[in-house]
Amino acid sequence: MESSNFWGNRTKSCLCLILLFAVLLGFYSNVFSLIPRRQTEKSQSPEAHHVQGRRESLTLSEGDGHLDSCRIPEVPRLLYPKAQLLKPLRVDVLVMTPWFAPVVWDGTFDSALLDVQFRNTTIGLTVFAIKKYVVFLRLFLETAEKYFMVGHKVIYYVFTDRPADVPQIALQDGRQVVVLHVGNYRRWQDISMHRMEMISNFSRRRFLREVDYLVCLYVDMKFSDHVGVEILAPLFGTLHPGFYAADRQSFTYERRPLSRAYIPRDEGDFYYAGGFFGGSVPEVYRLTTACHQAMTADQAQGIEAVWHDESHLNRYLLSHKPSKVLSPEYLWDEQMLQRPPLLRKLRYVAVPMNHTEIRSR
To answer: Would you please indicate which residues are annotated as catalytic (active-site) residues?
Structure first.
């Protein structure tokens, strides 16, 4: 009897010690697991926390305006023709670049389907009407209201040194004209080159908050047919009407190695027009900032690229491939070029003018 009590009591004591040891082991393991974490947190300087916060903020802001890269929009029930895999709609032109960017031609997209996908999108259009170029604004805006992003929210950002001369025109619902008063420059080349700087500055100051996409255009043009959301992409450029069928050796790239816009003769995809480019606001901000910085560096070296901001645009789009390329339908000059059969539509065309007279004032 005494022997059984002795072993029973001893067994209970051992069990209690084992349980106590297990509890203590769990407690200290939690404590020690916290030590490295706290040491890591203490070792991070306030600057490190600030950088991390900025990186997280940048990640969020970079997604702003990227309808293509955020989430796939839900499309309600629609009736539209089925795509025929073995019957391509265009076989006479290139419809896809080697880096899988669509080339937009008439017949390659369904406007009704795309309008639904981009139904909650706000598009900003930048246009510069400096000095006498303000005379082109009325026709530009009136034709834009007829053909540009019809049915979508649009903000026309008019950069001008003559705010009082900006015409008042009737606008569709959800559309507005915002006049941005800027200075002028003596030479038209300087106006052209400072365009990148001003778009960059205003992208950071307000465009990021106000619109999803930016479309950057020349003002001495008019819309003559549909230009809609089929053009929208994180980054897009437009084929120059004078070089869309040329080989790269014929492109008027900047060929002097001293310039930041330099492109060797054995490089180049397309020659892009300076009068029609755009994308999401973060991407346009990166493009215009890079081009402005490159032009500033050239200026410090006493060099000016052969075609000014257009030369730097082409240099940038060679290194940063656009996610969509617009065909010459989206920029054409009927006075200088004969329209080929492959151009079923002319959507945005040059207005006849006396360049010398306009640029001299």
So the answer is: 310
Per-residue tokens: 233: 């992409």
* Partners of 276 in beta bridges: 217
Two tokens, residue 283: 């991407």
- pLDDT for the residue numbered 48: 37
Annotated binding residue at 72?
Answer: no
**Predicted confidence (pLDDT) per residue in 20-49, tens digit:** 655 555 544 544 444 343 343 334 433 334
pLDDT of residue 66: 46
CB-CB contact of 198 with 126 (8 Å): no
Q: What angle, 0 to 180 degrees and rounded to 10, lies between the N-to-C axes of helices 308-319 and 281-300?
A: 120
Residue 128 marked in a binding site = yes
Count helices and strands (H / E) in the chain.
9, 10
What letter does residue 101 receive in the DSSP assignment? P
Contacts of 320 (CB under 8 A, 6+ apart): 235, 286, 287
Q: 220 a known binding residue?
A: yes
User: Beta-carbon neighbour count of residue 17 at 10 Å?
Assistant: 10
Q: What residues pair up with 13 in beta bridges, in sequence order? A: none
Element (H, E) at 195: helix 188-202
* pLDDT tens-digit readout, 113-140: 999 999 999 999 999 999 889 999 999 9
> Whose CA is closest to 280, among 334, 212, 349?
212
Q: What is the mean pLDDT of residues 94-121?
A: 96
The whole-model pTM stands at 0.79
Q: How far is CA 337 from CA 36, 76, 227, 305, 350, in A?
A: 71, 42, 21, 25, 11
Q: Any known ligand binding at 129?
A: yes
Q: How many CB atoms lie within 10 A of CB 40?
A: 9
Q: Which long-range contacts (CB under 8 A, 24 or more apart) does 74-81 make?
A: 75/113, 75/116, 75/117, 76/116, 78/112, 78/113, 78/116, 80/110, 80/112, 80/113, 81/110
